[in-house]
């Protein structure tokens, strides 16, 4: 059983839940940017939540099936079509042998997750099938899909009924979003006026928004505290002596455009990270299109941990919903 890639879309890659435990060696976790939507798509077709699927950014691929296949699409609103006939989002359907799957243009959100019964069969690298294109690791030859590629699938059960995803596990696509952040590690590098403006500003997602980082644009540069650059740091006011970067951390090179580091980010460098997006809000970033409005809201660590607990409860409830009777 295989799937032929006729058109790859804008940027389509194989992702699962990611590889954990290697970031200290410079290898980021990778994996789906919207982890909830990946889990949902897999559960709809009867896979384990972390099976390898396709992450499709802003434009879906065109695929031909060599055998009948159970398919589900979750996340961004891109209507799937089988031989030109509309199919449901957030609901499993059967793609007959020889049929061609394509997609309408994206109406909301940024990333669609496309799961196939059994899951995509590529070798695990460091415990994951996820693609890390910057390092040429995982997925299909360590890169995004190309026309002419063939995707092999693992065996699947044909006894699972066609499933539909309830509303409470679908992503929100509001006109403006609030991202909660924990201040630090280098928030002190901003002046009081700079900190106040960072949280008061309504930022817009820039066109430079990908799996490595999301850049935002505002009205005016943020003000940093004047200082003599320490030995080993550059002259830019946002430079520091090299330090580690947490996933979700926010740096502001030159004080002009905040960048949130995401799942393919580098693990360290010489820019001050003034805050970190809480883990419960990271899925939301993966669904932000360019020009969407965002504000940052400071929260303390107990609030971040409570939000993480609620997120994990939602995952557990999703998995219970589709568990066998």
Could you provide a short overview of the structure?
With 325 residues, the protein is an alpha+beta fold.
Write the layout of secondary structure elements.
Elements: E1 2-7, E2 11-15, H1 35-44, E3 53-57, E4 62-65, E5 69-77, E6 80-82, E7 85-86, E8 93-95, E9 100-103, E10 108-116, E11 150-152, E12 176-183, H2 192-200, E13 203-209, E14 213-217, E15 239-244, E16 249-251, E17 259-261, E18 268-271, E19 273-277, H3 282-286, E20 293-298, H4 301-321
Parallel strand pairs: 12-20
Antiparallel strand pairs: 1-4, 1-11, 2-3, 3-10, 4-9, 5-8, 5-10, 6-7, 6-9, 12-19, 13-14, 13-20, 14-17, 15-18, 16-17, 16-19
Can you offer a commentary on this structure?
The protein is of the alpha+beta class and 325 residues long. The protein has two domains: 2-169, no CATH class; 176-311, Cyclophilin (Beta Barrel). 14% of the residues lie in helices and 31% in strands. It contains four helices and 20 strands. A hairpin with a 2-residue loop joins strand 6 (80-82) and strand 7. The chain starts with a strand and ends with a helix.
Along the chain, the helix and strand elements come as EEHEEEEEEEEEEHEEEEEEEHEH
Q: Walk across the major sheet and give the strand order.
A: 12-19-16-17-14-13-20
Query: Would you count the extended β strands for me?
Result: 20
Strand percentage: 25-35%
What gap, in angstroms, lies between the N and C termini? 29 Å
Overall pLDDT confidence: 94
Helix content: 10-25%
The DSSP helix count reads: 4
Biggest sheet record? 7 strands, mixed, barrel
Query: Judging from the principal axes of the Cα atoms, what is the shape?
Result: elongated
Q: Based on helices, strands and strand pairing, what is the structural class?
A: alpha+beta
Q: Domains counted in the coordinates: how many?
A: 2
Alpha-carbon Rg, integer: 21 Å
**Low-pLDDT segments, ≥5 res:** none
